[in-house]
Amino acid sequence: MSLTLDPVLKTAQASQTRAPLVSIASTSPVPPIPMTGKAFDPQTNAEISPAVVALPSGAIAMAYALATTVTGTIRYGITDSSGAQFSMVSIPAPSGRTVLGVALCTVDSAHMGIVALEQASGTYYLTYWLITNAGAVVSSADIGSWTDWTQGPTLIQLANGTIVLAYARETAGVYNIRTRTTTNFTSWSGETVVTISGLNTANLVENPSFVQLSSGALWMWFDYVSLVSLTGSPLSNVWYAVSNDNGATWSAGTQATSYTTFGTVGQRPSAAIMGAAAMNMVYTKIMGSLWMGQYGNTITSGWLASGNDTPSDMHFDAVHRMLYVVVSDIYVGTHSLGSVVKIDVDAWTVVNSWNTTTVPAFPAIFSEQDVWWQAWHGDGDWVPVGCMDEGKQVISVLNGLNNTITTYVFGAQTATGMTANVLWTPYANVGYGATTTAYGLAYPYCQIACAWIDAGAHMLYVVIANTAVSNDIQIGKIDLLDPGTMGGDGVLRYQFTNIVTEHNVLDEYNIMELPWIGGMFVDPDEDVLVVSYATDAEGGSGGNLRIYQLSSGALISDYNTASNGAFPFGGLHRGFVYSEGTIYGGFAYSSATGEAAKKGLCIINTSNGSITYSAPGFAAVNDYGIENGEVIATGDGRFIVSCNGYGVAVYASGSWTLFDNANIPNLTPDGQNDFRCLAYDPSMGDIFAGCGTGATTFDGVVMFSQYGMMEQPQLVVVTLSGSAWSFAAATPLVTGFTDFSAAIAAPASGLLAFWSQGLATPQIYWGSAAGSFPISDYLAATAEVAITRTIDGSPAQLTFQVSDGYLFDPHNLKSLWNQYLAKGRLLVVQFGELVDGTEYWANQGSFIVSEISLSYALGEYPVMSVTAHDLSVLWAAIHIIASTWYETDPATIIENLIETYTSLTSGDIDLPAFDNSETLYTQWTNTDLASAIEQVCERFGMYHRMDVNGKATAKKISTSNPVDDAYPDNTKTMVFSPDDSYSDYTNQVIVTGQTGQGGGPGGYIEVTYAPERVGQVSGSHDWHSGRKDYTVYYSVDESRTCLNPYLVRISSVSSIMFALAGGCTEGITFIDPNNKYCVVTIDSPDLTDELIFALAAIVACYFIPDEFVGIGSGFTIRWGSYLDCFFIMVALNILAATATFQYEVWATPVGYVRQSVQGEWDDYASQASLGAVCTQTIDDPLCYSEADCNAVAAFEGMVVQAQRNRVTFQKAMNLQDEDGDTIQIPHPYTGDMMTVFITQITRRILPSTGGYARDDIEGWAV
Amino acid sequence: VSNISIGGYTLENNPNTMDMVRPQKYSSSALTFDSVVFYNWGVSIIGVQITLAWTYMLSSEFDALDAIYQEPGPLVFDPTLDSGKTYNVQMVSLTGTLSHTIQGGYRSNVQMVLLIVGEAT
Known about the structure:
The complex is a heterodimer.
Chain A: H1 7-12, E1 17-18, E2 20-27, E3 38-39, E4 47-54, E5 60-66, E6 73-78, E7 87-92, E8 98-108, E9 111-120, E10 123-132, E11 137-146, E12 150-157, E13 163-171, E14 174-182, E15 192-194, E16 205-212, E17 218-228, E18 234-243, E19 254-255, E20 264-273, E21 278-287, E22 290-295, E23 298-299, E24 309-317, E25 322-329, E26 337-344, E27 349-354, E28 376-377, E29 382-386, E30 394-399, E31 404-409, E32 422-423, E33 447-454, E34 459-466, E35 472-479, E36 485-486, E37 492-495, E38 497-503, H2 508-513, E39 519-523, E40 528-533, E41 544-549, E42 555-560, E43 577-579, E44 582-585, E45 601-605, E46 611-614, E47 631-633, E48 639-643, E49 647-652, E50 655-659, E51 675-681, E52 686-691, E53 699-705, E54 710-721, E55 724-727, E56 731-732, E57 739-745, E58 752-757, E59 763-768, E60 773-774, E61 785-790, E62 797-802, H3 805-808, E63 826-835, E64 838-854, E65 864-870, E66 879-882, E67 886-888, H4 890-901, E68 920-922, E69 925-928, H5 929-939, E70 942-946, E71 952-956, E72 965-966, E73 973-978, E74 988-994, E75 1005-1008, ...
Parallel strand pairs in A: 28-33, 32-37, 72-87, 74-85
Antiparallel strand pairs in A: 2-60, 2-63, 3-59, 4-5, 5-6, 6-7, 8-9, 9-10, 10-11, 12-13, 13-14, 14-15, 16-17, 17-18, 18-19, 20-21, 21-54, 22-23, 22-53, 24-25, 25-26, 26-27, 29-30, 30-31, 33-34, 34-35, 35-38, 36-37, 39-40, 40-41, 41-42, 43-44, 44-45, 45-46, 47-48, 48-49, 49-50, 51-52, 52-53, 54-55, ...
Chain B: E1 5-6, E2 9-10, E3 17-18, E4 24-31, E5 36-44, E6 49-58, H1 59-70, E7 75-78, E8 87-98, E9 106-119
Antiparallel strand pairs in B: 1-2, 1-7, 3-6, 4-5, 6-9, 7-8, 8-9
């Protein structure tokens, strides 16, 4: 269906006289506030104290200070009247003076004025510079100097032309704001003390800033300290006073912010007039820390935790700037999972959280078993969480970006109905005689001790401990991108690959305590795997720290007390770090002989084997709580250490810096210093620390800066309502928490802000709340604007060129326009017509900038070429690790995919009904979003597209669609050509599918495979064993189905006595009706009675007298002895009737396979004319029946035929027509009407002399 | 008639000839199989080039204009029209000929081309 246009615009499309219009507007794809900020005029030194003025001409001027310690410099710049690009100059301060602050104002249409506050040798100086607009210094001199503490300055040119300078100054303990005035910027009045009632002049007042309303009212903003803590922290708030006589007298001070604790205060206000009845005020919010979690009855929105839940593991995803926090009950009872929380560290809000009831959810077992703490190391957007209880071998891995949870079950969990899905061989099964158990493992006491993810290699490393059968360690890995192998039982199974296997190398104390206090560290860059087998137990030989080669599992070194007396006896606790060959970690303090001196941080140099200790200087104790904390590397040679009970410390080359509630006000809301897990943001220098005691105190995560207090400019919208001013709630002006001293102005484009970012060496950043920017005003007249839309699923493409390319160059940091065509910027395009002086518009879509190119060459004008695509261009870059399982109609699937993996919501999606829609049964793994959606669309002869209104939709590809638009004559068509270059000779299409694909209708069919060994039984059988039954499952996880089991005797039960007693029987006596196991029975005679008889006979034989036979010399027949010997022999044979046996159980495995189905389309006419059958074969996983295959084959056949009837032509632009429409045009020669299905349309407008506005169409003549 | 000013410099002598300062109409057409489509892109003063020509000019005045020519611009051009409108322009070219036949510092056949980039007032 063609687009619906305004009636006037529609009529204009039929005219031979056209006046086309083009509009391209650049907008931010996200709200412009809070501002992310862009670098500006980068210099080497710290850049502070920005000031900005919007001039009446449209130009914008700004200045800031370079805070060098020798001689400071003022950087000044101004744009032309377009407000686009700054030309910067440097104005040096007088020799030897450090610039503390800069103020800027207009003087006249050709001149600007700058006043700087400087300091040298304890003296403060106020110096003015009168400069031309371009920055040439006309005049400069000191206004005054003194040794009193001074702060500021600020400037304003009043409506009457008077320029007012203000600054804060303290004299003899009295703090005031003071002013001076001038009209020519060279002659200054004396100093006037501003009197503002309501302030205590003994308290600090500073940072004055002016704005003047059109009414003439002069507002002065400032900050005022009402209280100072015992440790010197100020409680400051933003205040204002108003003068209606150009600053001669002032109203009483009014408090504008209402901070009441030393932990969060407001300072450094700046304001800009936004009309007669509104102004924007910004100030710097200064915080000791940010926190979230649960504190009393206060629970952060989205924080899914309760009771004693406390952060137990965390890591920072630097790419997406997200903090992942595992929250579990680490203090009382079962240490089960509370949730995993994903936090946007820039907005400091919970983005998402997962527990056992969310969608997706962690398995219920995590609510019942121990998760423990600091055992699960995440990386990137992956978060592992495991159960470490005996026999509960389950690890779930959350992908926080794709919102998926994959669970790896090492041993079947019958209680919770979890089938084992890890393909591995438990090490204890190999040669140590263990038998299969109900858990499917070698022994139910196998424990998953800890796990580690390397996001770069998408690898999950797992350490498994087993002490019950033998002291075994098994370390291996699972590829997180392994899509799994589907078993015959419909269970996806994942491969576990061994790295290290050790049997009885370490003693049971090492292995037993590994899951509770030991730990691991993986450094893939150095090919190192470190495992700490710590033990605090009294027995055993102490802890071991073993370093393996990650790639081979080879043991590199083993540290323990026996080999190195400097090693702490119990070994390192979990939470240690390996960094460039050195290991840093905590351990349990021991007062035992030889151990008492080992305190603080243990440092092991693996290159020379030396072991040293560094005890923090902030306390003289034995235990610094490091063994219950964590050590992480900052990457610059420093280490962050959580000292549980003391705070968070930074260790660097022997020196310690502690952050606690004493030196950071309100570091935690309840003042506790109990920190455990840690994470670090190296780009901002922010530290994240898990905190809590699991009691009624604060349990959550805090974020604070290693540089001290965190700072973030806030925006307050102030509006006049009647005669009263109202203040909206403060909202963040910028993202991030190392930003301060924002200065704002309000040019015509909207709010403009400059501020300092970075607490170590701050740099000036800027941001703009400018709304839509008219790119079309800068379109190059020599290049067309073209939009191409096609049915092949590619995103629509927009191309154009703009003049002033240097202003749009993202690398031109002095241009405020460098944002408008930056990659990812949203462009909203409209085409239209000018009809009788009125503009009529039609949407042409929303695009995001994909590519820009600009050539700077001498003699060439810098024109920038821009290519943009609709939002679906991102879909090809969105990776689906594993989607949810779908069993629904195609439109619902596509909508869910889009909503899950993009920021689009249901309101942004407008899918039509799919012809012949039917339920699909599918899941996507390891693919991209575009491919998944395209697969669904093609199954039903559709293609996906973003429409002209920016909505995700789909259209039907068919040569049978009704005609949308008809052209009765050739007054619009310009060029025409048949073009079958895309066609081939295909005249047969065969589509194959499978019943039961992905669980779809049709199901599986049962098949059997060749018999194979499915189990074995071995052991021994004694003279009194009698009958014994042995249950043999056909697989370790007891899930395999087999038929017709039979026994293969490797070694049978046999002995003389068994044979004499009637013989043994051995065989399968029972077969499970569900064909999961069989029972092997061995039945031998019980020879107990025979033995008793023989023993009795032996005794009886002693009573049989000898018989003397008197023949010849005579001889004695010892009947008793003879019989005694006989019965002794019988008894011994019975006792010796112990036979070993070994049987193999063989059976016919049962599998389930899908049945192939096939559909076919034939172009018999083509086959006959060519004398050949040219076949195209397609395998469609979404076809479950022959009818499905036939439908897809028919569609593909239609496309094949249509490609042979392809035509291309040009016609005058008609804004009604779009891709997927069916239109009619006359054949240019015969005049016969042709129906054309539009497969591609490129709408081109070149709005200049020699230009055009036309549609280039490719289509199928039908 | 007051003298023309360019970039804050008022000419001592107005040019002998100067193009009219008027908007230019932009249009194009395309032949179709049965007709023609006419595209009217509207009129605009932006992009119009104005040529000012002097038979002779004092070399000092030429030097003053040449200094302006060297600047990156844009300049405010006041053609002293009845409408009172002034324009932002770029000085595209400034050419002239050294004349040795006339005593004193003169330039002959001076021609200046201004490109209007917008209306100033």
